[in-house]
Write a structure and sequence with these properties.
About 75% of the residues lie in helices and about 0% in strands. It is mainly α. It has a single domain (about 15-85, about 95-190), classed as Up-down Bundle (Ferritin), CATH 1.20.1260.10. Helix 3 runs antiparallel to helix 6 (about 140-165) and helix 5 (about 105-135) runs antiparallel to helix 6. The protein is globular, with a radius of gyration of 17 Å. The mean pLDDT is about 95.
Length: about 200
C-alpha cells in the first residue's frame, strides 16, 4: 500500500512557538527528557513485537524501529555527556498517560488503538523536533534535530501503514480522526515546559 492511499494524519492542535523558546532556553533539561523518550520509544517497539509475535510484518518493522530508536537514544546520550549531565530516572509523562486512557478494551480494538496512538505520538514528535530545529542557531545541534524530525515523519507513516495492513482503511481513518481530536485536547491543556510533551 502506498502512502498516497493512507488515511491522513494531520495534528489538530499546533504547538505554540513559545514551547520551542522554552526548550532552547533550558536545553539541558530537554535533552534529559529527550533521552528518556527515545528509550521508551525503543521499549514500546519491542513490547509490540513481543505482544503480537504472530503479525510477521509488524515484528519485522518493530525490530527495525526499536534499533533505530536505540540509535537515537545513544546519540542523545552523547549530547548529554558532552554537557556533563547525568541521566535521570523516568518521570510520569502526563501526555502519554492521558493518551493511554483513551485506549479501548478488546484484543483488536486495543491493537488498532496502540498502532494509531503510536503514529500520533510520532507525528507530535516530528512537529516538535522540527520546531526545535527551527529555533536553534545553524550548527550540529540544529542538523541533529532536523534529522530526528525526518525520522519521526517516517515512523508515524509506518504505524498508519501497519494499521491499514491489519484493519480496513475506513475503520482506521475513523478511529484516527477520533484519536486526533482526543490528542489535540490533551496537548491544548498541557503546561509549556522543557520536555517533549
Amino acid at each position: 500500500m502506498t502512502s498516497e492511499t493512507l488515511p491522513e494524519l494531520k495534528l489538530r492542535f499546533t504547538t505554540s512557538p513559545k514551547w520551542a523558546e522554552t526548550v532552547v532556553a533550558d536545553l539541558d533539561t530537554f535533552l534529559l527528557d529527550h533521552a528518556s523518550n527515545e528509550r521508551k520509544a525503543s521499549a514500546t517497539a519491542m513490547s509490540m513485537l513481543a505482544h503480537y509475535p504472530d503479525r510477521r510484518e509488524l515484528v519485522l518493522e518493530m525490530a527495525e524501529l526499536a534499533r533505530e530508536e536505540l540509535v537515537h537514544f545513544k546519540l542523545v546520550i552523547h549530547l548529554i555527556d558532552e554537557r556533563n549531565l547525568i541521566l535521570r530516572t523516568d518521570e510520569k509523562d502526563p501526555y502519554l498517560k492521558a493518551l493511554r486512557d483513551s485506549v479501548r478494551r478488546g484484543r483488536e480494538a486495543y491493537f488498532l488503538d496502540r498502532l494509531l496512538l503510536a503514529a500520533i505520538v510520532e507525528a507530535r514528535g516530528c512537529e516538535r523536533f522540527g520546531l526545535i530545529a527551527a529555533a536553534l542557531p545553524p550548527g550540529t545541534l540544529q542538523d541533529f534535530y532536523e534529522q530526528i524530525a525526518e525520522s519521526e515523519a517516517r515512523h508515524h507513516e509506518l504505524f498508519v501503514r501497519l494499521a491499514t495492513l491489519y484493519f480496513p482503511t475506513g475503520e482506521v481513518a475513523t478511529r484516527l480522526d477520533e484519536l486526533l481530536e482526543i490528542e489535540a485536547e490533551i496537548v491544548r491543556t498541557l503546561p509549556i515546559r522543557a520536555a517533549l510533551h
